[in-house]
Amino acid sequence: MRRVTMVVLSVVCVTLLGVVTNVATGALPDEWTPHLWLAWPALAVVVVALMVVEIRRARESAPVTGVAAAHARRVLLDRVRRYWITSVLERSLHREARIQLGVTASADDRRYPWTLRATHRDGFAGVLDGGASVAGLFERLDRAVVILGAPGSGKTTTLLELARELIAVAERDPDAPAPVVLNLSSWATRRLPLEQWLAAELTERYGIPARQATAWIEAGAVLPLLDGLDEVVAARRDECAAAIAAFHARQPLTPIAICCRESEYRELRTGLPVYGTVTIQPLTRPQIERYLDRSGPALAGLRAALAADEGLWEFTGSPLLLAIMGLAYADGPGPTDGPGGRRTRLFARYVETMLRHRPHPAYRPDQAVQYLTVLGHQLSKRQQSIFVLDLVAPTWSPFWVGHGADLLSRALASVAVGGLVALLGAGLLGWPGLVVGLAATTLTMLALAHEDYDDLELIASRERRPEDRAIRVNWVTGTADELRDVAGNAVVGWATVAAALLVGLAFGLTDELRGWPGLLADFAYWLGLLLTTLVALAVTRAMLFDLYLIGPPGGAPRREIPSPALRQRLRFAATGAPLLGVVTGALAGLPVGLARTGVDGLRYGAVVGVFAASYLLVAVALGPLAEQWLVRRRLARDGVLPRPLRPFLDYAVQCLFLRDVGDGYIFVHRELLEFFADRLTTSDAQMLSRP
Fold first, then answer.
1. What are the DSSP E strand ranges found in 623-682?
2. Of 167-176, 230-239, 249-258, where does mean pLDDT reach its minimum?
């Protein structure tokens, strides 16, 4: 705060110096006097630019103090505990099933029924039961391990047990690295070097400032616990393993743990840089029978189902499926035949039982299944594990033909910009100001029609974004590149020239100047609007590109609209719009002031500057915000997703279908996600029925 205050004081001093200089120049020649007003807009531009540069420089040069780093570390540990230990581990399906069914723990009952087999590359091997310390095993394996197992075997639970013990160590020892649980499925989206991906995830998932996250990773102060290597899309899985290996080669002393299905791990062409493996053993029939016997009448329904269908025993080796079976058959055995195989019938029975035991007045069981089917299908389609509200798109509805919300949001944004400019222009410039408003509406609509302002992945796919290295937007060169692209666009470029010419003619009709002075004034109005439009379009596109690279922040409030990414856009646009308005206003007002009077230049600059600032606001944030509202409304009307969505997601958490993780949600297991995803394919989208 003191640094920012000093910056503001220095800027004020520069401003006062400019005023004193302006007063002192009273001795200038008389022929300069009509043009002295130009010093004020020039001074305003310099002051704003100086303030922005100084504040950014001060922030970049500010050291990470010990107090700030310690506070950020406490915040990180607290969020890892809340997101993963409290919300996921302590509400694991194994535990929730025991609570739901009333299974009482016996004196010799272990925390989890599975067994861990550990091997070290130096030859050490051992078998540990569910009561062993996972952190102790992690230390024995030199703190670089991969946790392997079959689907549903308990890999993630074991990883989270390790996280819980490491959090306790980190809270006691300030020098111990802070454990961070991250899902690797998102790595394939941008395929960054692992250090940069880790920093981006710390910022996006946990709300840690980017500079602090980068400093921690470089210092080895973060202990990555990486879940779901098998969930990375198959075409990128070996690349992800290579990125992990390269990271460990650069930072060999940083501890690391990775989870992966055993079959996918064996198929990797790139080995993981680990010292040992922890393999979760499948449950044996004697173990399962002992577990059933100790549970008493609580699992009588499951025992009856196993007796009625011997084929169900093939699923009991998985702790996940064993817990699901206990809940699914709590009311007794179900039908032994029907559509799909045994696994499909098992999950269907589980979903039916949980919805019957935990009904909700706002969601019928068939509606709840339909909503979960859409979520599972879309996550599977995008190879993602965590659902966040920003994933919702109009393409989720099979009834939505065309781009209604997209076009309507762009039209509304264009009319809003033009209306604002027309009102201000009419007040300051008379009826030619209405022409400026009409030009603003047309140019905004045309620019938005040719700008993928709501498709960040498409923006990032431009040629200047190589996949093999990190990239940061240089606002000077980036904006210059965008300016060249905008000017070279035949439709937008010529439309901008024509609109500016129309504005120049409108002012020319009301101008009393004749001859060359009149033509010069018309040219000044034309040039001002032309420059303003091109700069506004270029800066907006550069800002959208930068927004893709930095990603949305974490730790956002749990609100639906605006969603987390749109809140980031709103803050970004609110910061950049005033500066863009001042700069473009000066560009537009300067030639008009030179050709006519200073007052005319200031008025015209104000109107055109408002146009540029408001265009940036609608293109970066307000337009996508309107589209988001329209999309949610349409999806609810089509019965695809409820509105609001969060209450339903929280209900799905209560039914043990989902888990909330920070600002997002995950299915309790990937197999349940796949069950819902398989219910909806492209060929049977008609199964979704309108309400």
1. 658-661, 664-667
2. 230-239
